[in-house]
Amino acid sequence: MKTLDMTEFHTGGGGISKLRKALLDTPDTKLKKHTGFIKPFFIGNAFTKLYGFTLAEVLITLGIIGIVAALTLPTLIQKQNDAENIAKLKKNYSILSQALVKSQLKLGFFETWDIVDVSGQNPEGGGTPANMKKVYEIIKPELKVIKECEDKAGCWHKGITKDLNGNPVIARDSVGIGSGILIFKLADGSNISIDDHGPGNLVHMGSNYNKSTYVFWVDVNGDKRPNIIGRDIFLFILTNKGLVPAGIDDSTKCKSAPLYYGAACTAKVLAEGKIDY
């Protein structure tokens, strides 16, 4: 094999062409075969330099990544929270519905129940109406209740419940929604508040039911925020057809009702499986 003196190829111009020609002139066919790879590794008469990023370029890139993350992470976190809340909502709806259906074995059909009217027949000085307590005591064995409160704080999240517009729903702090109510906590962390309403209020909840009845406010994530109707607090209404989600008869009330704004979104959330309003 021919011996090459490499020193002559590192000086003067045309180093690449001289080296390539010398290699091609060698009788070693294997070496000739690979001479095509020589050129990419040389520039002029020196080996190719390896280039990297400067510190400024790295910092700028990291800054851009940080900005994008700051813009997208809140949305991703909100979607994850919504998905968890919807799953809990479906679970609570199923449990409550089954418990109320079984209660008919002792109390008769829903439409025959003696519901306390909303015209001021709640106990004097507060407390929970006797008929409401009777219904609760019957459904209680079907639920995993860990604590119950009769029209007082202790079973609802701390602070004021707000509607979908961010307005306070009721002035009483840390108590469920309504007055003359019964609130209880479940083992899974959900809080439930029972109240009674007549047809005049039910229509604002997206229901056409024409009798006074019980409604069930479900805070699916319990004491955690945001504690907003339509976000983590949802409403169900007891009718002659059983427990139905608010908004079942009029979905337009989801974002147009003057009372409990956002309550009538429950049916929409269950039907679509998402919270996108």
Task: Briefly summarize what is shown.
The chain has 277 residues and is α+β, with helices and mostly antiparallel strands.
Q: What would you say this structure looks like, in words?
A:
With 277 residues, this protein is α+β, with helices and mostly antiparallel strands. The chain has 2 domains: 42 residues, no CATH class; 189 residues, no CATH class. The chain contains 6 helices and 8 strands. Strands 3-4-5-6-7-8 form a 6-stranded antiparallel β-sheet. β4 and β5 form a beta hairpin.
Rounded mean pLDDT score? 85
Structural class: alpha+beta
Terminal Cα separation, in Å?
80 Å
Net shape: elongated
Q: How many β-strand stretches?
A: 8
Cα Rg: 36 Å
Main beta sheet, described?
Answer: 6 strands, antiparallel
Determine the number of helices (DSSP H or I, runs of at least 4 residues).
6
Q: Uncertain runs with pLDDT below 50, 5 residues or more?
A: 35-46
List the strand order in the largest sheet. 3-4-5-6-7-8
What is the helix/strand order? HHEEHHEEEHEEEH
The number of distinct structural domains comes to 2
Tell me the helix content. 25-40%
Our estimate of the beta-strand percent is: 5-15%
